[in-house]
Structure formats: structure tokens, C-alpha cells
Amino acid sequence: MKLGIFSHCTIDKIKIDENSYERTGGPACYCSLAARNMGFDVELGTRFGPDFAFDTTLRKNRIRFDDALSEKQTTRFILEIHGSERTLWLQNICSDIPYRIIDADGILVSPVFNEISNQTLGKIKKDANLVFVDPQGFLRRVDSSNRVFFERTDLDLTKVSVLKSDPNEIFCLTGATEIDGVKLLLKSGIEHLLYTNKRDVSMFYKGKRYSITLPNMDIYDTVGVGDIFTATFCCTLIREKDALWALSFAGGAAQAALESGLIGLDKVPPRGATETNAAYFYNTIKFSDI
Fold first, then answer.
1. pTM (2 d.p.)
2. With the C-alpha atoms ordered 96, 101, 103, 109, is the resulting torsion angle positive or negative?
3. Of 181, 193, 209, 222, which residue is most buried, by most CB within 10 angstroms?
4. d(CA 179, CA 86)
5. Tell me: the pLDDT tens digits for 54-92?
6. How many domains does the chain have?
């Protein structure tokens, strides 16, 4: 089975307390490695510059990408992490990602900062059988100091099967908060709406809300955990065609990544750790009508 991913590779400077780390990142890398650990073939629609050195590792992991090298430098962010909260600055943005057909069982669209146009998203939705969207990169803007913030944005989400969101993204997409915003998004035809709010993780599906709670733990590096969660959900849904197992596996992958205490891509969990946690979450799912 195969997952296609449209997103920039990035180089991130991660600041935690007094420590600073420069790491390769972006959904293109986190999602690709997470999908490979789930046994999926992966093809990327991405762009990176001559300063990007992780392409060799991607190839070693049999992750395919064509025409990815840009004359522009790789997209770069600075991230300051304080517990579960983080502040983000944009240092550089690479070239836009052009549309191309990726023959895959599902396509994950997860921009980091406007590298995917609305027109490209429309073409992906037209040609793909199953479309997953993490909207954060469609919503991000920068202020005069290049600090990233979110802005209310109209985004055509018709023909999107799975949308991952958090409270801020729900508001920016709909102008409404929490369950009111969720209901507005579900009316657009989204089949599975993933909703993450720190430890609380929910999926809205077929008129019900299914919820799990990640364990309370010391959190160090949270960068990429959402990408690991999303890619694991996508792969499990494609393979098992079972939304509850997909939610359980996604939660299991997120927990394993956080529990590792590792930095950057090193926290992408092996499949065994994800499966162990998933079995626990499957038996703890709570549900309610919406």
C-alpha cells in the first residue's frame, strides 16, 4: 500500500529550556518515516534547497521524491517549546510545490506555510481517491518579526475525507468554536474529523464523537508529534478500513513518540510500540452522540 504526501521538508531550530537543537523536520519527513514504519510505500511531493542534507536518508528509507531540489534554500523555522505550548518563527520559505499526479491509495496534504496553493489542493482532490488534510499551513501568517500566527481563512474542504484540527484551527476555518465549528466542518462533507486538544483526542464520525486521552507525562519535544499522529491514522484507515482502530493507532503512535523523550525525527516510533499502545486505547475509547 502507498501513501502520497504533499508538504515541505524543513530545517528546524528547536529551543527547549536552555538547550537548542537543529534538526530536519516538516510533515514531509515526519509523516514519511511514520508511514514507512507502518509498512507503507511513500511518495513525496516536496521541495527543498541545496542546504538540505536529509535526502540521502529519505532514499535509504525507500521514500520516493522527484524534482524536489529548488534553487531556493530549504524552509526553516525556529521553535521555542514550553511544555505543551510552543512559539514559532519563520526564517525562510522554499519554492511552492507544483501539482503532479501521485498514484497512491491515499494523499495527505499537510503544508507548513502556504507552499501548496488552493489550485493545487483542488487538483489533488479531483484526482485522488482518498484525501487527508492537515490545514495548519493554509492558515499560517507572519507578523513584522516573522512570528507565526493563525488567521481566519476560507478553505474549500469538499471532497476531503479526513481533516485533522485543533481548537485554533477549527476557529480559523469556520469562525466558530469547538462543537459549533466541528458541526460546520462536518456539513462540508468531511467523513472523519480528528480533533486534538493537548491530551484529549477525538474523532467525529457518523454522528458520534469518539474520544481517547493520552496519559499525563513529562513532555520534552513535541515537534512532529501531530504529523506522526496524522500519518499513522491515514495508514491504518487505508489498511484496516476501521476508523476506531485508526484512532487507536494514531493515539498509540503519539504516545510512543512523546514517551521516547527523543528530539526531532528520532522520536518517530517503531511499529511495535505503536501497536502496544493502540491495543490499550482501543479498549478505552469513549463515545457520545453529537
1. 0.96
2. positive
3. 193
4. 24
5. 999 999 999 999 999 999 999 999 999 887 778 999 999
6. 1
Which residue carries 534547497 as its cell?
49
Mean pLDDT, the chain, rounded, equals 95
pLDDT at position 17: 84
Please state, in angstroms and rounded to a whole number, the distance separating the CA atoms of residues 45 and 51: 18
Burial of 221 (0-12, 13-18, 19+ CB in 10 A): buried
pLDDT at 19 over 80: yes
> How many Å apart are CA 290 and CA 255, to the nearest integer?
27
pLDDT band at 219 (very low <50, low <70, confident <90, very high): confident
204 in Cβ contact with 192 (< 8 Å): yes
Measure the CA–CA gap between 7 and 124, rounded to whole angstroms.
13
Rounded Cα gap, residues 173 and 152, in angstroms: 6
pLDDT higher at 290 or 193: 193
Q: Can you give the CATH number for the domain in which 252 is found?
A: 3.40.1190.20
Which phi and psi angles does 224 have, rounded to 5°? 85, -10
Give the cell for residue 21: 537543537
The cell for 149 is 500566527
Residue numbers of the domain that contains 214: 2-289
pLDDT digits (tens, 9 = 90+) for 223-257: 999 999 999 999 999 999 999 999 999 999 999 99
